[in-house]
Structure prediction request, 151 residues.
Amino acid sequence: MKGKRTMCAKEIMRTEVVTVSPLIPVTEAAILMRNEDVGSVVVVDEERRPIGIITDRDIVVSAVADRKNPEEMTVGELMLRKPISRELVTVDEDEDVFDILEVLARNSIRRVPVVRGEKLVGIVSVDDIVVVVATELSNLASVLGSTSKVF
Prediction:
């Protein structure tokens, strides 16, 4: 019997991750999200190590709804104001896709930065995993749907 083979993070991650410095104004991060058509950005330090994530929801809940001026607030300050302040969760590029799903569920998050050592190399979201699972199910359906003849 063959050993099971599942996909890992580096096979499904998106490598073009939109990143920002914690020192930029929240407004710049929001403009970048709009221009790149993304709902979140990964906050990185000078050595491209991920230190946080901010989402469009974070901007609304922790800045706009609190009547804070996003022009005067930095991304780093916004990260400190988030309702649930927690340590950033990351996964290694060799992490199994099912283990990533467990990490996402356990932490109630929709996306996770992927690292090689401490450096950011990609990001995996629930949507990315759904695409992989849907493709695998479609492939399985094709195999099961083909007729075989027994003589």
